[in-house]
Amino acid sequence: MPSGGVQRVLGVGGGAAGCETLMSVLTQLRKQRPDIDWQGHLLTAANALLPEAGRLPRWLTRRALSQAGITIHVEQRGEALVEGGVTTQDGTRIEADIVLWATGAIGHSWLASTELPLDKHHFIQVENTLEVTGQPTIFAAGDCAALTPALPNAGVYAVRMGPHLADNLRRACHGEPLLPWQPPERVLALIGTGDGRAIASRGGFGVSGRWVWQWKKRIDARFIARFNPPFEG
């Protein structure tokens, strides 16, 4: 890539993943190629960033994006990846050299060919016991499961469902009554801003700083370490 040029990096999706990924990627690109003018843009179909977060976390995230020189385009749904950019729901073409796609999840297409009850996003409808609605011998948990009321597709919910699912599977095998799963009312979200800082969000509470980034790294490292067996040399 020649020096002195302009490169547009476009993030599609205004959730936590979309914001964090775009800021982190831009930071690394600017560090590795300071001779290039890296311009950041973010598309979100909603009328605000992090629509499920409180006002303060949304403000902190918008401030971090602004400090990173990222232009935010609200109520612009990315519809398709095309040569040289992205088209939106109204046919507008937004040029980009790099596209980071981090929009909301939908269920796998093969689920539509089954007789499992699905919601409008093709996720499997389940009871609070994690049994599939109308099919009590089948269980579903994690991002593929849709409870009522609906939960965000966040890993923290999937992780917390796991032990309860295992318990109810054991109960089902022994003919014992199943227990309902109660999702937490508020969960902690930690969003890296790419500059050695992070934003902590829980309900309407929000705070940012370098210490939050160090906190996030410790939490992530501890979680990953649970799945890495000790090395035996």
TrEMBL record:
Domain spans labelled FAD/NAD(P)-binding: 7-150
Keyword DNA damage: no
Assigned keywords, A-Z: FAD, Flavoprotein, Oxidoreductase
Domain of life: Bacteria
Protein's UniProt keywords contain Flavoprotein: yes
Gene3D superfamilies: 3.50.50.100
Cofactor(s) the protein needs: FAD
Protein name: FAD/NAD(P)-binding domain-containing protein
Organism, as annotated: Vreelandella olivaria
Upper taxonomic lineage: Bacteria, Pseudomonadati, Pseudomonadota, Gammaproteobacteria, Oceanospirillales
